[in-house]
Design a protein that fits this description.
30% of the residues lie in helices and 22% in strands. The N and C termini lie far apart (34 Å).
Amino acid sequence: MRLCATAAICFLTLTGHAYAQSSSDYFLDSVPQANSDTCQSYSIVLALAHTGHGDFPLHNAEQLRVAELKFRKWVNNIAATDTKRSPAHHEVWAEALEQYVDKRFRLKREYLDFLDWLKRVGEITGSKDVSIQPELAAAKAKRVAMTSVEALGGTVYGKQGHIVSVLAIDGAANASPVTAIFFNSAIRGPKAEKRACSVDDLPGDYRYHAGLVKTNSYTLKAFEEGKHFLMWLEKN
């Protein structure tokens, strides 16, 4: 692992928002998810970082990568205890989070119709203004929402879905397409110039890049009865 000192960007000076203290340089100088199957681990530790909890100092790309891989080990270990469950099961993620944070937070999950999904994202993030720069939306979000998409901003993931973070939603919209601001850990296509320090060399580093995406072009994965998945962290 190659270490590199970076200056964390504190959006607090730009917005005055209390939660902005946790918005550090991984929102701008980000690394992608480590492997093709770790999107949920990446998104959950990103949401944990955004809480700013002192027991979980996650301020840069290196720390986020370490946490992503550590959390994925918890997921794999819990799934291995039950042959009826896999690392893709949502309840496994919830159990992994409880163990990872020693029950300081819980993973809340809901399955919603599209209009209810829109409303809930706005409530969770507290950010319904997508006219601002994505970087400011990331700083102003009071919490990070997470959802499963089949496609986002030109990248197609298919029916298996892909977990991404949602930081803001157009609060004035009530029908599709609705503009939202996402953070995607697995953007496919020509790789952008790597702005973050080199953390390590894992498969995701060669397949994806990561970053903020402002778009109204996305397809939410449909679960049972056409419901859309949403999850977020709540403090116990």
